[in-house]
UniProtKB/TrEMBL annotation:
Residues 66-247, 425-597 form the Aminoacyl-tRNA synthetase class Ia domain. Keywords: Aminoacyl-tRNA synthetase, ATP-binding, Ligase, Nucleotide-binding, Protein biosynthesis. Belongs to the class-I aminoacyl-tRNA synthetase family. GO terms for biological process: leucyl-tRNA aminoacylation; mitochondrial translation. This is leucine--tRNA ligase. It is found in: Mitochondrion matrix. GO terms for molecular function: aminoacyl-tRNA deacylase activity; ATP binding; leucine-tRNA ligase activity. InterPro entries: aa-tRNA-synth_I_CS (IPR001412), aa-tRNA-synth_Ia (IPR002300), Leu-tRNA-ligase (IPR002302), Leu_tRNA-synth_edit (IPR025709), M/V/L/I-tRNA-synth_anticd-bd (IPR013155), Rossmann-like_a/b/a_fold (IPR014729), tRNAsynth_Ia_anticodon-bd (IPR009080), Val/Leu/Ile-tRNA-synth_edit (IPR009008). PANTHER family: LEUCINE--TRNA LIGASE, MITOCHONDRIAL (PTHR43740:SF2), LEUCYL-TRNA SYNTHETASE (PTHR43740). PROSITE patterns: AA_TRNA_LIGASE_I. It comes from Pinctada imbricata. It catalyses: tRNA(Leu) + L-leucine + ATP = L-leucyl-tRNA(Leu) + AMP + diphosphate. NCBIfam families: leuS_bact.
Length: 922
């Protein structure tokens, strides 16, 4: 057992979590914190002691009934696919979420921090085939390994909430939600052209095909096929999903808002549903035709198809001798409101229109449509007269603009379209011809057609298999499973053999976490009303399109069903950047090399065998590029805390993290500095009292108070508002450097130093929990400040707070030039309004004369992390006043450059001098 520092005084204290039997003996006997042994070996032994204690504390906390009395904070990290081992990307995302979770716990919140497994999908199935075992066995084994690795990372996950999407107890409710969508008319089946992988024998999304038209997984040339597929009508929610983006914080979602908007597109029209017939028989599936003119739906004369359409076949030609330009088909469409029969025509006129599968012929607004209708002898009604609608039933007398929304609502009420969307956006194809996925709960009956499985018969479980050897493991192979009875007529029927796209499983898991043991409904309304929405969602930016789009669609639907009370599921979104590492490849062949194949003896790496100079780049970690880093190896060598800090320090979470072993060197050096600070403070406190110059004490205490207040405030802002852990670590480094300057005699008598040093330990605790526990235990042997519960866990302490009355300077900048500053109390800074800022700024003549008159159209940007206010003003003068100000700004920049050349050191004084110079010029 690792020895720790404890004096006899420390041993005599009462501890909430640690009995005396847990204390380690060596430091207790010697009473020394020898800085020479603060190395990775010691740090790892510290973790061996503290990890089980922290894990048990996490279990005890979750059982505490008082937790439910606290305000909630739901921090969610995107759950992983259980591939078998964590990679550095996993380490980064789960470290970030854990740091925020621990911070919010210390802030007095009931933290919801769950973990689960996105367990279905093709990768697991293929891996199982390669190994000759079942996907179930492969997946469960990987979950066991990765769960152990996550626990080794000292993450404070609530494992009582654990779920796996491959559990029947979970996918039962995925099927339940699917059936709700089916009842709402959002789930439907149709023949559609798909990307078919002939090796994996499944449908591929466009994103799964490389630039050569090959499957990114199997490498096979992708084929185009028509298959009967299941879809979810996501386009019905296009406008709702666009509007919902105004409810999220754009500063935190950043470009994800524009990514989502661009994916959905501008909602300029809607689809109209038409039944088809061929002769007197209903033909095929209904078709949905996009139009930007739903108000003219009573003026439709025909439907036009491009020549590439599959209905362009001689077997459907009405007259084989018709010219190639316009070919009328035997297939006809039925008007959804009037039952009027509309001709269907194949025409080259639509071939140049991108993304249009078919279009409506409306002669009133298109001379091409009118000529085609007249040429084919198609009768049509004119519906526009003097700017108003006629021959349009309930739309008569309305302008087109007035009738636009009225006509859409009519279509929605008749369940034949009408939802605002974009012509390019497609519905969600959810069918997968694979075994390892959620079965679609539909039964096909020769008499009753598609029949939903009754709710009481859910889940429709996958058939159990022991091994997987065939490249294709579609459910079509399991004939005994397929054969069933129709729940409607009792006759012989067959189960649907497609499984669902795994994106369905991950589109609602954040709701199930909150009520994971519920056996009667997917989740209780009471629980989701209390804990939703998610306060912070952490995950990779690669999921900023599809996953977020589908998860938001699910939540919007559940809101309309009355199952949740919030339309948007996520308040704050933190998309972390990739973990990058250096890759080495040959210039001639572009072949990637392992590090062992590279000669690093020269400043420019070369290939060992050939001496060829290599292309060295920072690229996303990848097995194929041989630049991956195994987190387990680093944890084994340096410890968990060092790995956690190295993966977040010095960079925004949203930025790329260039990974190298040098990160550990910096982390270990900083931890050693903290260790020495604690050791030195314990030594001086255990020494006899020595006199200190009162003026010297007062001078240093004033400095320490400023250092502590600024650090506490900026770390709080970084964690609470910006989620910028890299900024927080920078502030911690700065505080350590400052505290190292304090003389020993001042340390001994300064309550401000003890407070600053202890707050440092508390501030770093969410990042390096084991190390912080050890340091706080040491401080507990000599600590006396009343702010802390000495002897308890560091996580029992309240989060440090800056002194509310402490005054700080707020710099005012225009176009990144510092002009003047004003003072505010730290306690009011986070509540500072634009009116408050303007009130302070108007005290300056420079602001009143130049900035206020021309800033009105620009936003005031209060940067809490930088303690500044920024005004963005026109860079090119428009009015005479603007031109004068721009000229003065140019002079000010020249003045700044002169100061720099003079090596002017007073950074705080420089902008004031510059402002005075500018005022003199005024």
């Amino acid at each position: 057992m690792l020895p720790t520092y404890c004096t006899m005084r420390h041993l005599q204290r009462k501890y909430k979590y640690w009995s005396k039997s847990w204390f380690r003996s060596l430091f207790s006997q010697t009473g020394k914190w020898d800085e020479a042994i603060c190395n990775s070996d010691l740090l790892k032994r510290i973790e061996e002691h503290w990890k089980p204690i922290l894990q048990q504390r996490n279990v005890d906390k979750l059982k505490d009934p008082d937790q439910k009395k606290k305000p909630k904070y739901y921090v969610l990290s995107m759950f992983p696919y259980p591939s078998g081992n964590l990679h550095m990307g996993h380490v980064r995302v789960y470290t970030i979420s854990d740091i925020i979770a621990r911070f919010q716990e210390m802030r007095g919140k009931q933290v919801i921090h769950p973990m689960g497994w996105d367990a279905f999908g093709l990768p697991a199935e293929n891996a199982a085939i390669e190994r000759g075992i079942s996907p179930e066995k492969w997946t469960r084994s990987n979950i066991s390994v990765m769960k152990s690795q996550l626990q080794d990372m000292c993450c404070s996950f609530d494992w009582d909430m654990e779920l796996a999407t491959c559990d029947p107890e979970y996918y039962r409710w995925t099927q339940y939600i699917f059936l709700k969508m089916y009842e709402a008319g959002l789930a439907y089946q149709k023949d559609d052209i798909v990307n078919w992988d002939p090796v994996d024998k499944t449908v591929l999304a466009n994103e799964q095909i490389d630039e050569h038209g090959c499957s990114w997984r199997s490498g096979a040339k992708v084929e185009k096929r028509y298959l009967r597929q299941w879809f979810l009508q996501t386009t019905a929610y296009s406008k709702s999903l666009v509007d919902g983006l105004s409810e999220v914080d754009p500063d935190l979602w950043q470009d994800v808002v524009s990514i989502q908007r661009n994916w959905i597109g501008e909602c300029t029209g809607c689809h109209i549903k038409f039944q088809l017939r061929n002769g007197e028989e209903t033909f095929g599936d209904p078709v949905y035709v996009f139009t930007e003119c739903p108000e003219l739906l009573y003026g439709i004369s025909h439907i036009v198809l491009p020549t590439s359409h599959r209905f362009n076949s001689p077997k459907y030609y009405k007259d084989k001798s018709m010219p190639d330009s316009d070919i009328q088909l035997t297939i006809e469409a039925v008007h959804p409101l009037t039952n009027q029969i509309l001709p269907v025509v194949v025409s080259k006129t639509t071939d140049t229109e991108d993304f249009i599968e078919m279009k409506l012929g409306i002669p009133d607004i298109s001379h091409v449509d009118k000529e085609m209708a007249d040429r084919l002898g198609v009768k049509w009604n004119s519906v526009i007269e003097n700017g108003k609608l006629v021959n349009s039933h309930q739309l008569d007398g309305l302008t087109r603009q007035e009738a636009f929304d009225v006509s859409r609502q009519i279509l929605i009420d008749h369940k034949v379209g009408g939802h605002l969307t974009n012509s390019k956006l497609k519905d969600w194809l959810i069918s997968r011809q694979r075994y390892w996925g959620t079965p679609i709960p539909i039964i096909h009956c020769p008499k009753c057609k598609a029949v939903p499985v009754p709710y009481e018969d859910l889940p429709v479980k996958l058939p159990v298999i022991d091994t997987s050897t065939d490249r294709s493991t579609s459910l079509q192979q399991y004939t005994s499973w397929i054969q069933t009875k129709c729940p409607r007529c009792g006759g012989e029927a067959k189960r649907e053999t497609d499984t669902m796209d795994t994106f369905l499983d991950s589109s609602w898991y954040f709701l199930r976490y909150l009520d994971v043991k519920n056996q009667t409904v997917p989740f209780s309304r009471e629980k989701v009303d209390h804990y939703m929405p998610v306060d912070l969602y952490v995950g990779g930016k690669e999921h900023a399109v599809l996953h977020l789009y589908y998860a938001r669609f699910f939540n919007h639907f559940l809101y309309d069903e009355g199952l949740v009370s919030q339309r948007e599921p996520f308040i704050n979104l933190l998309t972390q950047g990739y973990v990058m590492a250096k890759s080495y490849r040959t210039k001639k062949e572009g072949r990637y090399l392992r590090p062992q194949q590279v000669d690093f003896s020269d400043s420019k790496p070369t290939e060992k065998d050939t001496g060829e100079k290599l292309i060295v780049e920072w690229e996303k970690m990848s097995k194929s590029k041989y630049n991956g880093a195994d987190p387990q190896e680093f944890i084994k060598q340096y410890g968990v805390d060092a790995t956690r800090m190295s993966v977040v320090a010095g960079a925004k979470p949203s930025a790329q993290r260039n990974w190298s072993n040098d990160l550990y060197t910096s982390t270990l050096r900083w931890k050693a500095a903290v260790w020495r600070l604690v050791r030195a403070y314990i030594e001086v406190k255990n020494q006899g009292s020595k006199a200190v110059d009162p003026d010297l004490l007062r001078e240093h205490e004033d400095k320490i108070k400023v250092w502590r207040n600024l650090c506490v405030f900026k770390v709080f802002v970084a964690f609470e508002h910006l989620f910028n852990i890299g900024e927080a670590t920078a502030r911690l480094h700065s505080l350590v450097n400052n505290l190292k300057k304090v003389p020993a005699d001042v340390q001994q008598h300064s309550s401000e130093f003890e407070r600053a040093l202890t707050d440092l330990i508390l501030l770093m605790a969410p990042i390096v929990p084991n190390f912080a526990e050890e340091c706080f235990m040491g401080l507990s042997s000599v600590g006396s400040h009343s702010n802390y519960v000495w002897g308890n866990s560091v996580f029992d302490q309240s989060w440090p707070e800056a002194d509310k009355d402490h005054m700080v300077d707020i710099d005012v900048q225009a176009n990144n030039l510092e002009l003047f500053d004003f003072q505010v109390r730290l306690g009011s800074l986070t509540e500072l309004t634009e009116d408050d800022i303007m009130l302070q700024c108007r005290k300056e003549e420079l602001f009143v004369k130049y900035i206020e008159p021309i800033h009105s159209s620009s936003k005031i940007d209060l940067r809490l992390d930088k303690l500044c206010v920024k005004f963005e003003l026109p860079s090119a003068g428009g009015s005479e006043l603007e031109q004068e100000f721009v000229s003065l700004i140019k002079e000010l920049r020249l003045f700044e450059n002169r100061l720099k050349k003079q090596k002017h050191k007073d950074i705080k004084g420089r902008p004031k001098m510059s402002a005075l110079y500018l005022m003199n010029k005024c």
